[in-house]
Amino acid sequence: MEALCYEKDKDQLITALLELNTYKMPDGRQFYEASEAELKEQFLLVQSHNC
């Protein structure tokens, strides 16, 4: 069950990043290769630049 929640959270972060026109991690990796923590960090960074 915990793994399912992790994937759901990760999917939501990826969707949010795509909606902000961000398509890869800064180091060139695809989103699915990043951890949830890395995705959260990237989301906060991109979101702060869009405000």
Structure description:
The structure is a single chain. By secondary structure, this protein is mainly alpha-helical. The chain has one domain (2-49). It is built from 2 helices and no strands. The protein has helices at residues 2-19, 36-49. Helix 1 runs parallel beside helix 2. It is globular and about 25 Å long. It comes from Alteribacillus persepolensis. It holds the Pfam family Fur_reg_FbpA. This is Fur-regulated basic protein A.
User: What proportion strand?
Assistant: under 5%
Please give the radius of gyration in angstroms: 11 Å
User: Using DSSP, what is the number of strands?
Assistant: 0
- Summarize the biggest pleated sheet: none
Residues in helices, as a percent range = 55-70%
Q: How would you sum up the global shape?
A: globular
Query: How many DSSP H or I helices?
Result: 2
Organism: Alteribacillus persepolensis
Protein name: Fur-regulated basic protein A
Q: What descriptors fit this protein?
A:
51 residues, 0% strand, mainly alpha
Q: Care to give the gist of this entry?
A:
InterPro entries: Fur_reg_FbpA. By secondary structure, the chain is an all-alpha fold. 63% of the residues lie in helices and 0% in strands.
